[in-house]
Amino acid sequence: MTQKPISGLEPPYYTAVFTSLRPDAPEGYADTAAELSERVATVPGFLGHESARTPGGLGITVAYFRDLEALDAWRLDSVHAAAKKHGRAHWYEAYSVHIGKIERSYGFDRG
């Protein structure tokens, strides 16, 4: 099933763009990613996320948050922090994080 892009978010809101390079299926990654996806959904102010990965291992995840307080709550979450530490030690070759404030947003859906 193809996931549609997230749309309909009323600006302003914030994004955390996580771009990473890692092997296709490192041990334990899928379970941790599923756990984190469930956990971030409980953060008040979390609006959703989208992810894509190329066959070569480049991945991009964009997470949407209503405000900086929500984004900081996720950044400081203890389970998330432990996963980041484990990821640096075992999964990722490289990654970057970019935080942005969205002031305008629009989309298109043929369906």
Low-confidence stretches: none
Mind summarizing the main beta sheet?
A: 4 strands, antiparallel
How are helices and strands ordered from N to C?
EHEEHHE
If you compute it from the alpha carbons, what radius of gyration comes out, rounded to the nearest whole angstrom? 14 Å
- The geometry reads as globular
**Number of spatially distinct domains:** 1
Average residue pLDDT: 92
Q: Given this structure, which CATH class is correct? A: Alpha Beta
In CATH, the architecture is 2-Layer Sandwich
Helix-strand category: alpha+beta
Span between termini: 15 Å
Strand order of the largest sheet: 2-3-1-4
Strand content: 25-35%
CATH-derived topology: Alpha-Beta Plaits
Oligomer kind = single chain
Number of helices: 3
Overall description:
The protein has 111 residues and is α+β, with helices and mostly antiparallel strands. The chain has a single domain, classed as Alpha-Beta Plaits, CATH 3.30.70. It has helices at residues 29-40, 68-76, 78-90, and strands spanning 13-21, 46-53, 58-65, 94-102. The mean pLDDT is 92. One of its GO terms (molecular function) is monooxygenase activity. This is Antibiotic biosynthesis monooxygenase family protein.
Q: Which short descriptors sum up this protein?
A:
Alpha-Beta Plaits; 111 residues
Give the gist of this structure.
This protein is α+β, with helices and mostly antiparallel strands and 111 residues long. The chain has a single domain, classed as Alpha-Beta Plaits.
